Amino acid sequence: MTTHATTDSAGVVVTGAARGMGLACAQRLAGEGISLLVVDRDDAVHEVAGGLAGDVASVTCDVTDAGAVGELARRVGALGELGGLVHAAGVSPTMGDWRRMFTVDLVGTALVVDALRPLARVGAAAVCFASTAAHLLPEPAGHPLDAVIDEPLAPDLLDRLLATAPDVVTDPGAAYSWAKRGVVRLVEREAAAWGASGARINSVSPGIIDTPMGRRELEHQPMMGMMLDYTPLARQGTAEDVASVVAFLLSDAAAYVTGTDVRVDGGVVPTLRRAMPAR
User: Fold this and answer.
1) How confident is the model over 175-234, as pLDDT tens digits?
2) Which of 9, 42, 143, 154 has a CA between 20 and 30 Å from the CA of residue 231?
3) Which is it for strands 56-60 and 3-4: parallel, antiparallel or unpaired?
4) Using H for helix, E for strand and C for coil, what is the string for the chain?
5) For residues 245-268, b (16+ Cβ closer than 10 Å) or e, as one string?
6) How many whole angstroms separate alpha carbon 100 and alpha carbon 241?
């Protein structure tokens, strides 16, 4: 874990800031004069920090490494109070097997949220990245997997997932959907703990977004093309579309919004739900 610091206040922490939607969020917030600590797993984040105006620090951190996340939290504490969190770090189905989907997208989110929650000041806000995939699972609430994903920091998480629904979770696409469902549910549970400190936490669920990761998924997964066909706004979203919603959720304009998920999907989820056969 290496650090390049250019500020004496942590401000808002942005993970996954070296590329894609995380980068767009960092650019948007920096443009509003907000102090940032930008985080990614590789050194590209230091170059990103150098290109952002204002007070910016950069840290390399693998969010799946509990020790590294603990170091990140100590770094944030040394810089000052946590003003906000944008947790955009994550992977998509073509980037690994089912274990990687759960470890990065769900466990990594839980580690970051758990480590930074004690540092949140009154008025702070966190935004975690989920996905529209979480809203398109055919299984209703109360599925046996829900009880498993609701304990993301359990040391035997992967074993329990495999024992509960092996035919489901071992598919990377399904694993991604369930991991992101876990993020939505995590945020709902965390609202009370963050609220006790006068802070808020929400999630966003992007749809088909035109980023390098999104283009990769669109190329390799037929379902993504179908989703685009069913998107009422008839276009892909942009990283800036998502960053605008994140900026709103972090702002005082959303001061009474917490524990909820905001879909940034061009309307595809309700359209697809109506088109799906009744279960």
Assistant:
1) 999 999 999 999 999 999 999 999 999 999 999 999 988 888 888 788 888 889 999 999
2) 143
3) antiparallel
4) CCEECCCCCCEEEEECCCCHHHHHHHHHHHHCCCCEEEEECCCHHHHHHHCCCCCEEEEECCCCCHHHHHHHHHHHHHHCCEEEEEECCCCCHHHCCHHHHHHHHHHHHHHHHHHHHHHEEEEEEEEEECCHHHHCCCCCCCCHHHHHHCCCCCCCHHHHHHHHCHHHHCCHHHHHHHHHHHHHHHHHHHHHHHHCCCCEEEEEEECCECCHHHHHHHHHCHHHHHHHHCCCCCCCECHHHHHHHHHHHHCHHHCCCCCCEEEECCCHHHHHHHHCCCC
5) bbbebbeeebeeebbbbbbbbbeb
6) 27
The encoded tokens of residue 33 equal 């004069």
Token pair of 176 as six digits? 């991604």
Tally of structural domains, the chain = 1
Output the six-digit token pair for 189: 């549970």
279 within a domain of the structure (yes/no): no
Instruction: Provide mean pLDDT across the span 1-27.
Output: 77
Q: Each residue of 57-102: pLDDT tens digit?
A: 999 999 999 999 999 999 999 988 899 999 999 999 999 999 999 9
Task: Count other Cβ atoms within 10 Å, centred on residue 135.
Answer: 21
CA angle at 141 for the pair 85 and 279, rounded to the nearest 5°: 130
We report the CATH number of the domain holding residue 185 as 3.40.50.720
Dig out the tokens for 45 from the structure: 């984040």
Full residue range of the structural domain in which residue 126 is found: 3-274
Q: What is the predicted pLDDT for the residue at 180? A: 98
Tokens in use for 272?
A: 């697809």
Banded model confidence at residue 143, pLDDT cuts 50, 70, 90? very high
- pTM of the shown model: 0.94
CB 75 within 8 A of CB 24: no
